[in-house]
Amino acid sequence: MSSEAETGNGDPGPILISDDELAACITELGSRITADYQGRAPLMVGVLKGAFMFMADLARAIELPVEFDFMAVSSYGSSTRTSGVVRIVKDLDLDLAGRDVILVEDIIDSGLTLNYLRKNLAARNPATLEVCALLVRKGRQYEDLDLRYVGFEIPPDFVVGYGLDVGERYRQLPHIRQYQPNGNS
Asked: Which residues are catalytically annotated?
């Protein structure tokens, strides 16, 4: 991978998922979570930094009291390819024991980071543990991930926007774009 791709000096590329498509999907996910967790107050665990925009909008679409906590993990560094090694950079502040936990992910690629997080969080004895992923890259998973809430399945291309970045760039875009490392959009 070129250093240009790793530093985010390419073109953010063509729009893959528009603002309106994101809003409609998040409203639907919020309605499903509201129905599934009726009478409960789920704890949403956001995976930083990429999921912060999605989690904020999702929380507003859920018509229940929700609580928040955040984890930061790293498996990409500044590259556009995962290293396969997961590190917890920031751990949770809240106790998960007996809680209904929804792990909020921006994107699922191979599933290795997700599997690591699930095992880590399950060891903390939540009452329930489900995953809500905005994006899942088609055909990249090593096994069935049993995801309860999924926004969009996308091609295996690298994407930016709506919290997702390359080299800390393009997170602020209000939509999802197919990143073009060489500026070819």
From this structure: 109
